Give the backbone structure.
Amino acid sequence: MIPAAVTITHRKLTPREAQILHEELKSTPNILGFTVRELSNMRDVHVAEADGAFAGAALSMDLPFGWTDIAAVYVLPDFRRLGIGNGLLGAAWDCAVDRNRRIYMLSRNAAVVVWMRAQGMVISKYIVTAPLAVHLWMPMYMTSWHRTKESFRKSREIQKCPELVQGVCKNPRRSVGSVEAR
Ligand SMILES: CC(C)(COP(=O)(O)OP(=O)(O)OC[C@H]1O[C@@H](n2cnc3c(N)ncnc32)[C@H](O)[C@@H]1OP(=O)(O)O)[C@@H](O)C(=O)NCCC(=O)NCCS
């Protein structure tokens, strides 16, 4: 359960939050990362604050044909295991559901994959079966000097991680155990 002092807000990241998140994402092999400019420009962001301090974010992106990719969720190490990750995912999911979007997710984080299953996503390690919208978008996502650099830098660590799996939900309902985002 999310403690009372934690809020989740649907808003853009502040420049300082974008800078913090950019640096933090370098620490995980589970997310290749985003530039500060990309993070600052993202509109579909759920931001968690704990007692007013930036605690994490979920980043969603609209793809063609009605798909939304919940592309990343990150909770700062000091705030983990407090329910914030679940809260962010639930808020991002419900926001997409309220806009009648289909939802796509890709993760190698076991806790996140458990969450994806709980939402009724069709889970598969065969990324080739991803919706066409994902295939069209993926090359654009990877055409980034920052992510190319990061994929080399993180390559050893990535090899030790569990396989990437995708979750596909064509007709999502509101999340299981969701919280309301402001
Ligand atoms: C994944 C992450 C977002 C989880 O955030 P969090 O705030 O610690 O998660 P929560 O406290 O909401 O816990 C969510 C669930 O995951 C489980 N969990 C979280 N971290 C775990 C860990 N290290 N080992 C085992 N289970 C874990 C919790 O027990 C909880 O399970 P429950 O729903 O059955 O109670 C956070 O660990 C993180 O930012 N990791 C680095 C980035 C990353 O891997 N992001 C996901 C890739 S998109």
In short: The chain has a mean pLDDT of 94. The radius of gyration is 15 Å.
